[in-house]
Specification:
By secondary structure, chain A is an alpha/beta fold. Chain A has 11 helices and 14 strands. A 6-stranded mixed β-sheet of chain A has the order 6-7-8-3-9-10, sandwiched between helices. In chain A, strands 2-1-4-5 form a 4-stranded antiparallel β-sheet. In chain B, 69% of the residues lie in helices and 0% in strands. Chain B contains 14 helices and no strands. Classes of the chains: A alpha/beta, B mainly alpha.
Chain lengths: 309, 297
């Protein structure tokens, strides 16, 4: 499968500050989530891929096209829904989306037709002749989505797509994103602070921390993997108990208040855990089967030293 | 596809040539301007002077009309001074139009964060500036060199006898002189529009650059007993360049009030250099401001 994005030692510097530090990776997912705390470099990465910032070293390729040498061709493949309010002043919704379609290269008639379609598709059909300035926040988000997809891009960048939306509007936005993903014509990059949004929309997730890739996870594989995830709550456990569990072949992550998350390998039974606990005089107060959630992946990435897990 | 189906579909139809996409911006801008009655009226008024100049050229070559007007011979000499006066008047009108239209080109896009939407598409910063500039270039061309050259052709056809061949310098001067002014005023209007991000302020600044700077230049000249202060006076700079383009010795004092050059002030090459420096400064401001994303260093 052709990679959607390839990062090749990508480095971006603003003056003396290095924002993206030699990023490497190849991503092939239908929908790739971009996660990270504030200042991790998510927006800089998106802006660099869009050609707004020049890499100071290395490069990146989108569908095999180099962002340095083929910027024009790369942008022909992209759709972009920015995080903040972004509009052309004084225009009606459909006029605005038509302009954006024409700028992307659609002939005027096709641009007009697709602008209407895009507005109906995002659910703003009845409001398409209203001035953008009169739209509510939720309507503006939908109008931004309409302008991002009107020209049928191959890769869509969504920057905080559910920002400021109330629950029904958020659900509608997530549904639209899933529909785009499942349609198969378009790949997605979803940058969001909301883990739930990424979890619902994406099949791969890239976690950035301090300008580095802290984690990359194929959520689809994680979901498919037939591994046994356990969450246990213990009393009296210490480092010795965790080490003993790891000697059994389990992956273990310890959390405060005696909570532990375990990945059980094939051949290890739960009763072996109870036996081990009894040997070490540790009480297992609760035991749940639990899949590693995106939140766990994210938290582990944030806790890992040197920005990587 | 019917809109009622409401499903997403890709686009695989034909695309317009990339080189022509900058022209989309003036097309949309003209659609917007057409709705303004004030703009339409003003634009029509700006065509009065070329009409009057055209009538003068016609009357000059029509004995019956001259007699009707009680004229004895030459009504007005149709020479370089005549065309310089037309260019000066029309350029002054073009300046007012630029002050009205220019500030609304970039500042609303910056204020509404629209630049990332344009620049995330196969549309470069240069194409964006060229597109916005085309609005002014087209309007001001219609007001300045196009009527100038039409009048030149009219005069040539009525006069005959190789008049056009003998006066080609006038045509070149009208064309070049108008384009220098158009480029300068367009770049200034766009740069100020990008700099202040507020339409009324950008319009006011454009007037300020001309009138306040001219006053400042006069003050410098008076206090320091020099003429180099005129390098700050844009109308003086352009007037000097025009005088040199038309015929330096003969036509000082022509070019309508706005661009009249009275005395030998600063060398012509200094005026060219100053105009180039202003254009360079405007391009620098546009280069700094027209970006998809702001960089916080």
């Amino acid at each position: 499968m052709q990679p959607v994005i390839e990062l090749d030692n990508l480095e971006v510097r603003f003056g003396e500050r290095t924002i993206l530090k030699k990023l490497n990776g190849s991503f092939t997912g239908r929908a790739i989530g971009l996660l990270g705390p504030n200042g991790a470099g998510k927006s800089t990465l998106l802006n660099t891929l869009l050609g707004f910032h020049q890499p100071s070293a290395g490069t990146a390729r989108i569908f095999g096209k180099d962002i340095r040498g083929e910027a024009h061709a790369v942008r022909g493949l992209l759709g972009y829904m920015p995080e903040n309010d972004s509009f052309v002043a004084g225009m009606t919704g459909v006029h605005f989306v038509r302009l954006m379609a024409e700028i992307s290269g659609l002939p005027p008639d096709a641009a007009m037709e697709r602008a209407h379609e895009a507005f109906f598709w995002v659910g703003l059909g009845e409001a398409r002749y209203r001035k953008l300035g009169t739209y509510s926040l939720g309507m503006k988000q939908m109008a931004k989505l309409a302008q991002a997809i009107v020209h049928g891009p191959k890769l869509l960048f969504l920057d905080e797509p559910t920002n400021g939306l109330d629950p029904p509007a958020r659900a509608r936005m997530i549904q639209l994103i899933q529909e785009i993903r499942d349609h198969g014509d378009m790949r997605l990059i979803v940058s969001s602070h909301l883990l739930r949004d990424v979890d619902e929309c994406c099949d791969e997730v890239l976690i950035l921390k301090d300008g580095r890739i802290a984690a990359f996870c194929n959520l689809e594989e994680e979901r498919r993997a037939n591994r046994k995830f356990l969450e246990i709550e213990t009393r009296g456990a210490n480092g010795t108990f965790a080490s003993a569990i790891e000697r059994l072949g389990c992956e273990a992550a310890c959390f405060p208040n005696g909570r532990m998350k375990l990945v059980m390998p094939d051949g290890v039974e739960i009763r072996q855990l109870y036996a081990l606990a009894a040997d070490q005089n540790v009480q297992i107060r609760r035991l749940n089967h639990k899949r590693d959630s995106l939140e766990d992946i994210f938290l582990k990435a944030m806790e890992a030293p040197n920005g990587g897990i | 596809m019917a809109v009622y189906k409401q499903t997403y579909r890709g686009y695989d139809g034909p695309l317009t040539p990339a080189w022509s996409r900058f022209l989309i911006l003036p097309r949309y801008a003209f659609e917007e301007m057409r709705r303004s009655r004030f703009f339409t009226m003003f634009f029509l008024v700006t065509m009065l002077a070329p009409l009057i100049f055209g009538l003068i050229v016609y009357a000059e070559h029509n004995l019956s009309v001259l007699k009707m007007l009680g004229g004895r011979g030459d009504l007005v000499a149709i020479d370089a001074r005549f065309f310089l006066n037309l260019l000066g008047w029309q350029s002054m009108m073009a300046f007012f139009l630029a002050a009205f239209v220019g500030p609304g080109q970039i500042s609303p896009d910056l204020a509404n964060n629209a630049l990332p939407l344009y620049l995330a598409r196969p549309f470069s910063r240069a194409e964006y500036v060229l597109g916005k500039m085309s609005v002014l270039l087209i309007l001001m061309s219609i007001m300045t060199w196009i009527p100038g050259l039409l009048l030149f052709a009219l005069q040539g056809s009525l006069q005959g006898g190789g008049w056009i061949g003998q006066n080609l310098r006038i045509a070149a001067a009208v064309f070049l002189g108008a384009w220098i002014w158009i480029l300068l005023i367009s770049l200034l209007a766009l740069a100020l529009s990008a700099w202040v991000k507020w339409k009324p302020m950008a319009g006011a600044l454009l007037f300020g650059v001309f009138f306040v700077a001219a006053g400042f230049a006069g003050a410098i000249d008076a206090v320091l007993r020099t003429s180099w202060g005129q390098l700050l006076n844009i109308s003086h700079l352009i007037g000097t360049v025009w005088a040199s383009l038309f015929d330096q010795r003969m036509h000082r004092g022509a070019g309508a009030v706005f661009f009249r050059v009275h005395v030998e002030d600063v060398p012509v090459w200094c005026c060219w250099a100053a105009l180039l420096a202003i254009c360079g400064l405007c391009l620098y401001v546009l280069g700094r401001k027209i970006r998809g994303a702001e960089v916080v260093r």
